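dumping this here before i forget
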Amino acid sequence: MLHNYGDKRYNFGFKEEKTRVPLVTLSEGGFYGVEYSAPDGFEYTVQVTAVVPNGVRAHGDVLYVHDGPGVKTIVFNHVGFTGSAVQPFLFSKGDPAGLYILGIQVIGQDPVFVEYEAYVPDSKQ
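structure:
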């Protein structure tokens, strides 16, 4: 799935997309994120919206949060990047298992949605 952005027609896409990820915090060795691969010096802006189970606490540079029935929508502020970068999305202690959705929008393009299930690994049960 590729998306063109800017006059240079640079393609953004998913290198690898997981549909299930273990619910492991950073202190437990879990590191998750979205990697943006771009030429050195190429500038772009990204906005992310997360739809998460209720019980997830919003962290980071949050624009606003909307609590809905069974889910919470977290809209993050725009973030500017130059060249390749990783935007981390980490689990916190107490985050529930369930369906998580990230809407990733390179400004000027339609958003792309990544849906994954966070599950409790056998070692934590």
